[in-house]
Amino acid sequence: MVGPPSVAADAAPATRTSAVVHAWVKPHGLPATVRVEWGTANRWRSRRLAVPALGWAKHVRLRLTGLAPGKRYEWRVVATTRAGTTVLGGRHVRTWGPRR
What we know:
Largest sheet: 4 strands, antiparallel
Order of helices and strands: EEEEEEE
Radius of gyration: 14 Å
Shape: elongated
Oligomer: single chain
């Protein structure tokens, strides 16, 4: 029996208005939907990415743009196949600039 996808992730250092999230998703031979979610307490955004049915980890990269300078953004990666869902959360990135 195949289990839910495996996920590892990290973010590159942010600029004043953007950051890059890197995720490695191993879907265990099943097609997967990957959702990257980011935001603050008041405003969240998300983007869906597809990962084909692979037996190894696929690198997905997403540039988060339009961020405010000097602000902390939470982010997480949610990967889903028909075998289940894996959530990798509790991550954050801070943009450059005076804190707001």
